[in-house]
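Cross-check.
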Amino acid sequence: MTGLLLTIANISGGVLLGLATLDKWDGESNFFNKIAAVLAPFQTVIGGALVVIGLIQIFGGHTVLLNIVSVIGGFLLLTHSVRKVPALGDSLKKLSDKLMPFKAIIGIAILIIGILHIF
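Predicted model, tokenized:
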């Protein structure tokens, strides 16, 4: 069950994070923009699911590298919420700023991971 939830979260998070690249690929149809508009209100929930379920999968002995990428993608989706954590706010903000240039790459990676988990 957690595998299915992680697959759905990977695909959704991948669309949200990789939107800049995906928008270039679809041309005039704006297909990915429409999907991202529907998913945007759930960004925090998707990011939380990626982090929590990814960590559960890591500690459960599943493929570690793929789940680490999912956790990093979830962290990027939670950037706006993570900065409000009182004790860790500054260090998490610095980590988030270092990861932000790779946002699209990580998004495409977790989208591909999600699609591959379907098959």
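DSSP finds eight helices and no strands in the chain. Helices lie at 2-17, 19-26, 31-39, 43-59, 64-77, 79-82, 89-99, 103-118. Passed to J.P. for a second look.
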